[in-house]
């Protein structure tokens, strides 16, 4: 069992604050501004979500971002897509991070403070999704890099918005505005930017007021199907992503 004081300051890209009622706020960032996702955060977030899930004093979790985007920027720094050993690390972390989010056995709320152009699967594994009018969704980087969107996107988007819509979303790099996302069941509420975190805390405080086992076991009950889908499909999808990355690497090498 983890204790908050042992991991509160352990993650350079996550600002963690917890209220006396057990509501934990997790703000993803880079140097205090919006997060720039890279290979180091890919590794770091595996341990972040594991630590949160191991802390039985957490009663509800709010996941949000800093600045004007939840996650819209990515850097290749720290990634090695193009060797077996490098991709083995990515595959392991890709499977673990999804499992570790689902292993957080208290209700989770995502407060999307702006665009979500990558790793929107983090939000889709939570229980309540709030967005601002400025929030848009897209799976941008996979096809830009020429690789399969196999890190959970291929499972969760068709599950949430329907098979035909989900496949179209990924294959065309479709941009979903906040209202369309709400109409399609991705978002629960659209909240003005200056009210976003207050609304997230309002919901989280209500959950934290439940008997501890009630909140915890409700999250477990509600995520059983997602657990099965992720366990069944995440490793396979990541393997296909790795094969496509190897093909890209070969093409780059042939052109050099």
TrEMBL record:
Recorded family membership: Belongs to the enoyl-CoA hydratase/isomerase family.
Coiled coil: none
Protein known as: Enoyl-CoA hydratase/isomerase family protein
A Pfam cross-reference name: ECH_1
């Amino acid at each position: 069992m983890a204790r908050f004081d042992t991991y509160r300051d352990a993650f350079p890209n996550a600002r963690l604050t917890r209220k006396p009622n057990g509501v934990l706020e997790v703000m993803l960032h880079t140097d205090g501004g919006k997060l720039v996702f890279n290979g180091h955060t890919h590794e770091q977030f595996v341990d972040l979500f594991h630590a949160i899930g191991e802390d039985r004093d957490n009663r509800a979790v709010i996941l949000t971002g800093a600045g004007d985007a939840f996650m819209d920027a990515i850097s290749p720094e720290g990634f090695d897509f193009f060797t077996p050993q490098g991709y083995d690390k990515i595959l392991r972390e890709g499977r673990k991070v999804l499992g570790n989010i689902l292993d957080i056995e208290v209700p989770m709320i995502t407060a999307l403070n702006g665009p979500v152009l990558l790793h929107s699967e983090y939000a889709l594994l939570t229980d309540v999704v709030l967005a601002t009018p400025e929030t848009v969704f897209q799976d941008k980087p996979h096809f830009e890099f020429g690789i399969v969107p196999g890190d959970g996107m291929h499972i969760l988007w068709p599950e949430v918005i329907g098979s035909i819509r989900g496949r179209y979303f990924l294959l065309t790099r479709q941009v979903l505005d906040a209202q369309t996302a709400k109409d399609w069941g991705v978002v629960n509420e659209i909240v003005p930017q200056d009210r976003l975190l207050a609304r997230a805390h309002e919901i989280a405080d209500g959950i934290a007021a439940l008997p501890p086992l009630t909140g915890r076991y409700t999250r477990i009950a509600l995520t059983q199907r997602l657990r099965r889908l992720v366990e069944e499909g995440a490793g396979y999808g990541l393997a296909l992503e790795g094969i496509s990355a190897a093909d890209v690497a070969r093409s780059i090498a042939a052109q050099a």
